[in-house]
Amino acid sequence: MLSHIKITIIGIFSFLLVACDDSEYAALETGTIVNGTVVDGYIDNATVCLDINKNNICDDSEPTTNSDENGLFKFTNVILEESSFIPIIAYGGIDTATDKNFDGQLRTILDTSNISENSIVSPLTDLVTQAFLDTDMNSSDTLNNVKTEVANIFSIPRAEIEKDPMKDITLFIKTQELQHSKDMIQKVLEKNIQEDMSIDDKRILQENIKKKLLEIEMKTADIDTMTYIFTTLVYDITVPMNQIIFANGQLEEVSRILNSLLQETSLNIGKLDQLQNLIYNEQTKGIDNLVNSDSEDEIEIVKIEIPEDSIPKTIFNTDDAILDEQACLPTNSYNFIESSNSGLISDFTSGISLSSGYEKTTEFPDSSVKIFYPKIDERLLNLTTETQDVYKKNNNATYDYYFVFNKAWIKNENNIVYILTPQRGTIKPICYRYELNDTVKYDTEGTKVYR
Q1: What pairs with residue 27 in β-bridges?
Q2: What is the pLDDT of residues 262-284, one digit of tens each?
Q3: Is residue 91 domain-shared with residue 54, that is, in the same domain?
Q4: How far is it, in rounded angstroms, from Cα 189 to Cα 60?
Q5: Is residue 18 part of a domain?
Q6: Engineering a disulfide at 156: which of 160, 207, 239, 443 sits with its beta carbon 3.0 to 4.6 angstroms away?
């Protein structure tokens, strides 16, 4: 893996197709709309531009806008070249998770031949952009391979790279580790560079740090690796060993607390900004110890403590529930149908139907119920049309939801389906798992599951 990343950094992806020269591109005939989100926490009032000339600066002549309090930005009626790769740059503004100025710069690559509905600009897409621009090979193959390389570094699926890290705990953990690593290395270097740095100097410094993190595959929690980073960043300075030891130890502490959050099965991912703020405040104490150190004495590492009652949790009770990472997710590659109290909704090709018994009320503003199910073996489906009814009762002896499945499901190799019930007031939607292996009508019972 390390050799692949080095190839990415120095730009010799010999196995990829070389892109056409910019002069061969044709302009898109009509103006284009580009929507996106700037997120570390969500960045409010960030300056966002399309870096058409790829000089890593938002020039006056380039389309520029600002993000709102949810990190959202929009370019309307912009004229772009067909089949081109344009960096989107975001900088400045306020990180709404920490309520502090956002001093960094984040980027993503806009592929004009495949513009997404929402271009996420995050620390992970920023790392992809750094690697992609270093290849100097503008092609979709290059971009896809760079995304795969970065995803491998962070042990996440390739498709996760372009998702919102504030909506997924694993992505949140990876993003925060990356940001804290960049910030820590920069703080150490700035402390030892004996002159004020201009904005351009800081930008170049950040680029060099990102390149180095790619090269060492984010393995910062190692003294030898941390020493290598500081001795190869091409700055005419010597970083004292006590600072290297501190930087390594403090990043280990950040990694420890972040990864411990993965064990919080009832974590409310809708409030990850609260966790980010808590960790940021604790980490700031460690940075202050670094900044105020003036000798080679040991620098105290700040142990990050997050009180249990400060961790935002959902009301969902995971007692006796099964942890299933594929449960009730539209991305789980299962088929699904949805019913909103409008009678039986059916997928006849799969032999399964669903009806919601929830009435639309103030308590249930959205009465929709979803059922997720794998593909059925068509040979079994053709064997019988006999059906099996399953329902769940409430106290009024009417059903909350009701689903019907062809008895072929009992013999199907994967006979597990998932039901997602509506949100009830402040109680989050609940996911139930059913194994369709009962031959007696109404005997199939659900088991709660959680991601």
Answers
A1: 81
A2: 877 678 888 999 999 999 999 99
A3: yes
A4: 31
A5: no
A6: 160
